[in-house]
Amino acid sequence: MQHLISYNDIRLQKHLQFLSSLYLKAEKNEIEGVRGSGFSFEVLKYVRNLRNEIELTEGEIKELEVFVSDLKELKDDLYKAAVSEKESLENKLKEMKSEILQLIVPANIVDDKDIILELSAGVGGQEAMLFAKDMFDMYCHYASWKGWNCELLKFDKTDIGGVKNAHIAVSGQNAFKIFKFESGVHRVQRVPKTEKAGRIHTSTMTVAVLPQPTEIDIEFIQNDIEVKFNDLMEQEVNM
């Protein structure tokens, strides 16, 4: 998941401090401190513990950086072990920061929507259409692997197996959240099947990811309905 704010952002750190204070209030049964925060007591507790774990890990990494620097000239087994441990902790730190962002940064309100994928061949003639077909197959296979449902809405194919345009309805958990970053122009550089001289060509295709609209329940109240008709309509009714 991509975020427009980093873990070290000062605004986020202030917000984490605020959530930590809410947790301390909730721990003292001051439930009013939790209401309005948008988080349950369990989530506040988990965020606070995760933040503490992040701070501990950052401290361990700093200690290892000094240790590795001191052993840099030797580069013995101890040095290699320290480097390996440092890399492991850095990966762990990255995962924890990503997790805490996912917990407290609001998600897009359409992230859980089903989608319509629109694929169109771009620059490159027949090769662009073959590229669009490759992308079509990739998206369909990925959706199948995720256990999502796919419905083909449009498929304009070419004589050599390419695709001019294709529309696919994809239904599955977090479909828009996962696919939304695929929107835009995609490019490939390769030797096309149609190329006789073995030259590399550049071709493009475009992808549009649209959230599917959901059904809206509308309740009509009898008193709110007003029927109007003209004289001609009245004559027709009375006939």
UniProtKB/TrEMBL annotation:
One Pfam family of this chain: PCRF
GO biological process, any: translational termination
Residue ranges occupied by any Peptide chain release factor domain in the UniProt entry: 70-182
Keywords for the protein's UniProt record, in alphabetical order: Coiled coil, Methylation, Protein biosynthesis
Record bears the keyword Coiled coil: yes
Gene3D superfamilies: 3.30.70.1660
Residue runs in coiled coils: 47-99
Keyword flag Isomerase: no
Transmembrane segments: none
Xref: SUPFAM superfamilies: Release factor
Signal sequence coordinates: none
Protein family: Belongs to the prokaryotic/mitochondrial release factor family.
PANTHER family associated with the record: LD18447P
Name the UniProt record assigns to this protein: Peptide chain release factor 1-like, mitochondrial
Organism the protein comes from: Nephila pilipes (Giant wood spider)
Gene: MTRF1L
